[in-house]
Write a structure and sequence with these properties.
The protein is mainly β. It has helices at 17-26, 91-102; strands at residues 5-12, 30-32, 35-41, 46-52, 57-63, 76-79, 81-82, 85-86, 88-89, 119-121, 131-138, 141-146, 151-156.
């Protein structure tokens, strides 16, 4: 459904992603800061923390005429541009990202030989209707290009 709003990528100051998303929500603007939980170790304790998936970036869902309102938030820097226009992110890709972070985790797995140029079905990792292509392999790391969402996923492979 097109409600006249589009999803845009907004750059924030470093380490301000969650703060900007919360401030925009309080201003009545829809925003999404994708996060993952990660265990962090300090000298005296271990703690599970939420880490932004897109460093220095959040997604905002606003009508194009209201794009400038986000700059009322002091830590908002600028929009991501593509071919001279603010880059729009399709609703389906935002939902796929959200599902990949909140959806079910891997229950089983299998080992398959991988090689550069090989196409891989990424749906089992939470990317709906997404196919990836192996770009590069080095040691036990593999870089997979997801063309539809403009991302490269780096996987660590157990040997």
């Amino acid at each position: 459904m097109n409600d006249g709003k589009n999803w845009y990528v907004l750059y924030t100051r470093p380490r301000s992603e969650k703060k900007v998303a919360n401030q925009l929500q309080r201003m009545g603007l829809e925003s999404y800061c994708p996060v993952r939980k990660e265990m962090r170790q300090w000298s005296d304790r271990r703690k599970k923390v939420e880490v932004p998936v897109l460093p220095s970036m959040i997604l905002v869902h606003v009508p194009s005429k209201d794009r400038k309102k986000v700059f009322d938030c002091p830590n908002a820097v600028r929009y991501l541009f593509w071919e001279g226009q603010p880059a729009e992110v399709p609703e389906g890709e935002v939902k796929a990202l959200e599902q990949s972070l909140t959806g079910p985790r891997v229950i089983s797995h299998e080992s398959i030989p991988l090689r550069p140029g090989q196409h891989i079905d990424m749906t089992e990792w939470g990317f709906k209707n997404e196919e990836g292509r192996i770009k590069y392999m080095s040691g036990n790391h593999c870089w997979i290009v997801l063309k539809n969402i403009g991302m490269v996923v780096k996987l660590k492979i157990e040997k």
